[in-house]
Design goal:
The complex is a heterodimer of chains A (275) and B (210). Chain A is an alpha/beta fold and 275 residues long. In chain A, 27% of the residues lie in helices and 20% in strands. Chain A is built from six helices and eleven strands. In chain A, the strands form two sheets. A nine-stranded mixed beta sheet of chain A has the order 3-2-4-1-5-6-7-9-8, sandwiched between helices. In chain A, strands 10-11 form a two-stranded antiparallel sheet. In chain A, strand 5, helix 4 and strand 6 form a beta-alpha-beta unit. Chain A starts with 32 loop residues before the first helix and ends in a 9-residue tail after the last helix. Helix content of chain B is 54%, strand content 19%. Chain B is elongated, with a radius of gyration of 21 Å. The chains are: A alpha/beta (275), B alpha+beta (210).
Chain lengths: 275, 210
């Protein structure tokens, strides 16, 4: 079922239905990092990296469950569900390695939306995101954005659809004075960089649109050819938040994106749970 | 058509291509200086061929690269263009594939690379690269911000250059009204000649007639 074909139920809560929406567990009195992800490994959580591909078998990445490539010719969208081209740039492998370092037992899938040329790259990004949302991933890492206004509306719809389907989109914020998407939408977690070295240090930003700052400066990351590089950019802060989100979801799979965001807020380094 | 014509008339008067080349060169020279880097270059996106083209370089070794073309979405510059995300990479030598490709294409193997997309309004126009900033200093977010601000200025210059090029080509065009742009260009060239006065009087009469 595509994002546009969701059924439209009537929205109300009769008295006898209150029991049906009882939460599976009581909300704890105090949210700490120990409660949120203590002893969690990311096991059972499906994470999608929407990027330039992932080099499978890289020492810092390990197993990649599936590699998919999206391409568009004319009106035809092709989803190659057994792509073997790997990573065309190194960036996707870098993001995957960061997620793996935080959530070592999560399941990683690569959806390649970059590398087939600049022309049409916005449309490929959109189709890749649509495919990933349909697959029901728990977390989608998007260390990229588009500046094209014509895609903003559709991206917004897709981001909301992900939010309602319990797929957490984690997207890189722009640190340049331009409008870009999807990180500006409130249904995603948007991430900028801080300069500290601890991968679990992250800050909640009370002045949105950027919601969180995570480690993004001088990060040692996996790169093509089994290599490693030291990199800086919001691109690398984003998979830190995606990895932490995967940890929380592996311990608390019942959380909706709204609840997950709340947990991340309560456990932020500058909020109190960070202790 | 009218904005193109407007630009074409302006281009006829200004002789823009050369001055914009100077501007781009000055941008990469300043970029190199503020980051105390060894080299800096600007790559412009050619949307017709979907390629990145070297437009300006701050060092002599890289100047031979001007005009060289690369696919628009491969390599570091391509990624930065397509993802719209600035990227700073230290210790590029750690990646054998990257070093070899770079060495083959430029004869210059950088140890570190800063690449930032040149974004103007909705469009990604190209990429600004700064190569080999001093390694002893840890990279800071303040530098990242400076790079972003500087790239914004470079993007405005690139946008002007592209407009000038479009204008120049419409100046050569067969469009009925392109004659106006050519007339403006010729009037500018004959600044010192008496025939210019006669031509201007003729134009004033033409304006009254219209």
């Amino acid at each position: 079922m595509s994002a546009e074909e969701e059924p439209l139920p009537a929205w109300s809560l009769p008295a006898e239905a209150v029991d049906h929406i009882a939460l599976p567990e009581a909300w704890p009195g105090e949210i700490t990092r120990e409660w949120a992800w203590g002893a969690a490994t990311g096991a059972g959580v499906r994470v999608c990296v929407l990027d330039s591909g992932i080099e499978a078998g890289h020492q810092l990445v390990g197993e990649v469950q599936q590699s998919v490539a999206i391409s568009i010719e004319g009106e035809n969208v092709t989803v190659d569900e057994q792509d073997t081209a790997g990573d065309l740039c190194g960036h996707g492998t870098a993001c995957a390695g960061v997620i793996r370092s935080l959530a070592p037992e999560c399941e990683l899938t690569s959806v390649r939306v970059l590398g087939a040329g600049y022309t049409g790259s916005g449309a490929v990004l959109l189709e890749g995101l649509r495919w990933a949302i349909e697959q029901g991933f728990d977390v989608i890492n998007m260390s990229l954005s588009t500046t094209k206004q014509k895609f903003a509306g559709l991206l917004h719809e897709l981001a909301d659809s992900a939010y309602f389907r319990r797929t957490m989109l984690v997207a890189s914020a722009h640190n340049m004075p331009v409008e870009s998407y999807p990180w500006r939408f409130s249904s995603v977690i948007s991430v900028g960089s801080h300069e500290q070295e601890d991968p679990f240090t992250y800050f909640y930003n009370p002045k949105p649109p950027v919601e969180f700052f995570a480690r993004g400066v001088d990060v040692e990351v996996a790169w093509m050819g089994g290599g490693r590089l030291v990199c800086t950019g919001n691109s690398f802060a984003t998979p830190h938040m995606a990895g932490i989100a995967a940890l929380v979801l592996s311990k608390h799979p019942e959380l909706t994106p709204f609840q997950l965001k709340s947990v991340l807020y309560l456990c932020a380094t500058n909020v109190g749970g960070g202790a | 058509v009218s904005s193109d014509l407007h630009a074409a008339v302006a281009a006829g008067v200004l002789g823009t291509e050369e001055s914009h080349r100077d501007l781009l060169h000055s941008i990469v020279v300043v970029a190199r200086a503020i980051f105390r880097a060894k080299a800096s270059s600007i790559l412009l996106l050619d949307e017709e061929t979907d390629e990145l083209v070297f437009e300006a370089a701050a060092d002599e070794a890289s100047e031979s690269l001007i005009g060289r073309r690369f696919p628009s979405s491969t390599g570091i510059a391509g990624f930065v263009l397509v993802s719209r995300q600035p990227l700073v990479i230290e210790d590029v030598l750690a990646d054998p594939r990257f070093s070899r490709e770079t060495a083959e294409s430029t004869g210059f193997v950088p140890k570190g690379l800063m690449a930032v997309p040149l974004l103007h309004e909705e469009r990604a126009l190209g990429v600004l690269e700064v190569l080999d900033r001093p390694q002893e200093a840890r990279f800071t977010l303040a530098e990242m911000e400076l790079l972003g601000l500087f790239a914004n200025q470079a993007a405005i210059a690139l946008d002007l250059l592209q407009r000038a090029r479009r204008a120049e080509s419409s100046l050569q065009g067969k469009d009925d009204l392109a004659v106006l742009a050519r007339v403006a260009s010729k009037l500018e060239d004959r600044r010192e000649e008496s025939s210019r006065e006669d031509a201007l009087r003729l134009l004033a009469d033409l304006e009254k007639l219209l």
